[in-house]
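re: the backbone from monday

yeah here it is again, tokenized this time
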């Protein structure tokens, strides 16, 4: 039962079950409809695993009935990657007479070809259903597969008039609980989170992802954690006083991005402790960000969420290193003593969302 739009809505919900878990692959959801009824569902759960269409076909456990419809958020792949072409799987299963597709696969190896293959085989293909939502689902994949570079996003929370740094001694939270929960939702999407040395020293953040499942259980896990620290000041002291990202159960997930000015003894001690260090020609300015981007690409880290502080974000913005921005604006006004003024200009087509009292502006930056 349901229109193509409604069915795609269900497929999107299935795809999102693997939120943040499929990198470098996209999230994809699929379902099979017979006589107006959903008879099987599937989603792509992790990189290297079976694609959504195959999961749905396997869940059905028998050939689809003649005249069946396959609904999928992303154009089925047309040539075999590691897992075999989904177009072949659909055609070989038989029965499917119609395919409803959300977004075109931006992967140059597929883009548009899947549609051609299915049509050439005589199937009716409807494209572009909820295409914008289906494409938006894979912001990171879309960027990575077309540029070969990580998708670098910055996040900042400010007062209504754009100030991000409260005066000394003031409450450090600018935005409310709903906005903070949204930050965790986006943290979960990205393979990596990055912060500057100042944030590590002042906040001693965990930089893990914490979320509540539909059944109420609270979960926590950890992706890559980058600390940008040109001198390794964050590791200069005794290990007993190190910030938790160098000492907790996930310390192997921390990578410190440093420069030629790194303190040699701190570097050696970090590596001994199992914390990775990327010593770069510079951590700052255009050259540094390009090198950072290359190293991420070499390790297939396809997206980085820059959480702060203001200095790190300002530096990335100046270098033109930010692809995308998340700007949370609280309704409160700044007063004397506030600093870190942000004036982000998004490319057209940015979004505005409400999270409790706060507003989120998010979108792409114009690339020079
Ligand atoms: C689909 N359905 O569920 C996914 C697709 O190495 P492989 O075999 O996993 O192929 C990866 C490529 O397949 C990926 O770059 C993207 O173009 C497409 N992903 N396609 O039809 C899916 N995950
Ligand atoms: Zn596929």
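seq for it, each position gets an aa:
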């Amino acid at each position: 039962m349901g229109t193509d739009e409604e069915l795609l809505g269900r497929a999107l919900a299935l795809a999102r079950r693997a939120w943040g878990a499929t990198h470098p692959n996209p999230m994809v959801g699929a379902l099979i409809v017979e006589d107006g009824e959903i008879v099987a569902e599937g989603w792509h759960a992790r990189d290297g695993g079976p694609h959504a269409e195959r999961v749905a076909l396997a869940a059905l456990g028998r050939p689809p009935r003649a005249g069946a419809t396959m609904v999928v958020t992303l154009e089925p792949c047309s040539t075999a990657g590691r897992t075999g072409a989904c177009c072949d799987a659909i055609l070989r299963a038989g029965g499917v007479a119609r395919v409803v597709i959300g977004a075109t696969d931006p992967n140059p190896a597929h883009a548009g070809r899947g549609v051609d293959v299915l049509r050439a085989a005589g199937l009716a293909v409807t494209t572009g259903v909820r295409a914008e939502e289906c494409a938006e689902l894979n912001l990171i994949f879309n960027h990575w597969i077309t540029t070969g570079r990580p998708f670098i996003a910055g996040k900042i929370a400010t007062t209504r008039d754009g100030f991000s740094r409260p005066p000394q001694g003031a409450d450090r939270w600018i935005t409310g609980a709903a906005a903070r929960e949204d930050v965790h939702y986006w943290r979960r999407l990205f393979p990596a989170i990055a912060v500057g040395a100042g944030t590590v020293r002042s906040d001693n953040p965990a930089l893990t992802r914490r979320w509540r499942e539909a059944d109420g259980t609270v979960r926590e896990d950890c992706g890559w954690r980058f600390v940008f620290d040109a001198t390794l000041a964050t590791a200069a002291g005794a290990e007993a006083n190190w910030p938790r990202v160098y000492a907790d159960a996930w310390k192997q997930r921390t990578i410190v991005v440093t420069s030629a000015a790194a303190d040699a003894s701190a570097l050696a001690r970090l590596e001994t402790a199992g914390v990775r260090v990327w010593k770069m020609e510079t951590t700052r300015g255009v050259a540094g960000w390009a090198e950072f981007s290359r190293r991420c690409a070499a390790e297939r880290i396809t997206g980085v969420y820059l959480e702060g502080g203001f200095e790190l974000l300002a530096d990335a913005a100046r270098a033109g290193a930010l692809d995308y921005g998340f700007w949370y604006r609280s309704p409160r006004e700044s007063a004397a003593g506030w600093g870190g003024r942000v004036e982000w200009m998004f490319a057209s087509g940015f979004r505005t969302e409400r999270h409790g009292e706060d507003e989120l502006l998010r979108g792409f930056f114009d690339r020079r």
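Residues 285-298 form the longest helix (14 residues). The pocket of AOF (ligand 1) is lined by residues 25-26, 28, 44, 51-53, 74, 76-77, 81-83, 86, 105, 107, 110, 145 (CB under 6 Å).
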